[in-house]
Amino acid sequence: MHAERVKRFRQSLTDLGLDAGLICSDTNMFYLSGYSGISLERLIALITFSHEERTYLITPKLEKGRAEENCKLESAEIISYDDSEDPTKLLASLIEKNRATKIGVEETIQYKYVNALSKHAPGILFKPITEVLYSMRVVKSQAEIDMLKRAAEINIQVLVEAIHSVKRGVSERRLMRQIEDKAFDLGAEDVPFALVQSGRNSALPHQEPTDKVIEDGDMVVLDIGVRYGGYYSDLTRTVVCGAPSPLQTHIHNVVLEAQQKALNSIKIGVRAELIDAAARGVIAGAGFGEYFIHRTGHGLGLEVHEPPYIRAGNAEAVREGMVFTVEPGIYLPEKFGARIEDNIVVTQEGYMNLALLPKSLNIEDY
């Protein structure tokens, strides 16, 4: 699988007239090789040349063991260095040895590495290839979908327990800690966020949990992300502590209708902007258009936010195997907010929902 990905990547480099592709991000390194290391003050890099099959992995010596254990590329040569060496000189010597002058790089590469390479190997031209890598990753294989499904299964269990823990007197921060502990107990590798937003805080989509305690009548938005096998799930449900008010019920019903309208519009070939428009049209038609303040969805995979983006102006057609969220919301300032979020896979039949759990304001329905 990884060898085939590198082969496709190498062909893309050739098509663009590039001599090599340099990868420093942990996500793309993991995608291409099975090994991931975060390149901070110590350089970790994967470089492949368009004219040869060998791939080179440059790591500090303290990472060599992990690289050897996790790298799935038989053709990879692991080159390690100690803290007294300059790894950019090692990289530059490889580039010069292979007579490469046009190097594809991710847009996130640290300037200090680009600057050092320019000094050690004068004449190098850098070209961004972030979109090339995303175009490879945007359609998921069955193995990737299986990982996303497992991440969603863990997330569902965590989310349901969190919903049952919504009680008067429980603080947002305490519930966040409970969510994190449960996710790790179930096998999650990471919990990048566990948002618990109650009362007025629920009108702030990215509000971090606070010491505010949940009160009777509070709308509570629970937005949880977990990672499993390198892949992410991102799910949201909105419930009320106690009995919902007529306005809370109405807002939630509008969001639910908007989400279902968007889901119903998903099929191979439909433009991403039309999925967004389907949800947005329902909310605007109900008179709350100005309170839907974000896109309808985003892709899921090795990153919790990646293409495709389900937003106005994105004319990209969705394809079988794409995975993304559908998460419309309404946020009434100083009152409350509501959001419902599922993770879907585009299929021949339309879509498969990885988040099969209720969509109710009532805690007892879960």
Describe the structure.
It is a single chain. By secondary structure, the protein is of the alpha+beta class. The protein has two domains: 2-137, Creatine Amidinohydrolase, Chain A, domain 1; 142-365, Creatine Amidinohydrolase (Alpha-Beta Complex), CATH 3.90.230. 36% of the residues lie in helices and 24% in strands. It contains ten helices and 16 strands. The protein has helices spanning 2-15, 26-33, 61-70, 87-97, 111-120, 130-137, 142-164, 172-185, 246-264, 272-285, and strands spanning 20-23, 45-49, 55-60, 76-81, 102-105, 125-128, 190-198, 219-228, 231-240, 297-299, 306-310, 323-326, 329-332, 336-339, 342-347, 350-353. The strands form five sheets. The protein has a six-stranded mixed β-sheet with strand order 4-3-2-1-5-6, with helices on both faces. A hairpin with a 2-residue loop joins strand 15 (342-347) and strand 16. The radius of gyration is 23 Å and the shape is elongated. The mean pLDDT is 96.
Give a concise summary:
The chain is an alpha+beta fold.
Task: Name some characteristics of this structure.
366 residues, alpha+beta, Creatine Amidinohydrolase, Chain A, domain 1, Creatine Amidinohydrolase, 2 domains, six-stranded mixed β-sheet, three-stranded antiparallel β-sheet, 24% strand
Number of domains: 2
Alpha plus pi helix count = 10
CATH topology of the largest domain, which one?
Answer: Creatine Amidinohydrolase
**Distance from first to last alpha carbon:** 39 Å
Global shape: elongated
The whole-number mean of residue pLDDT values reads: 96
Q: Based on helices, strands and strand pairing, what is the structural class? A: alpha+beta
CATH superfamily of the largest domain: Creatinase/methionine aminopeptidase superfamily
Reading the helices and strands in chain order gives HEHEEHEHEHEHHHEEEHHEEEEEEE
Low-confidence stretches: none
Biggest β-sheet strands, sense, barrel: 6 strands, mixed
- The portion of residues assigned to helices is 25-40%
The total count of strands amounts to 16
Sequence of strands across the biggest β-sheet? 4-3-2-1-5-6
Instruction: Name the CATH architecture of the largest domain.
Output: Alpha-Beta Complex
Q: Supply the CATH class of the largest domain.
A: Alpha Beta
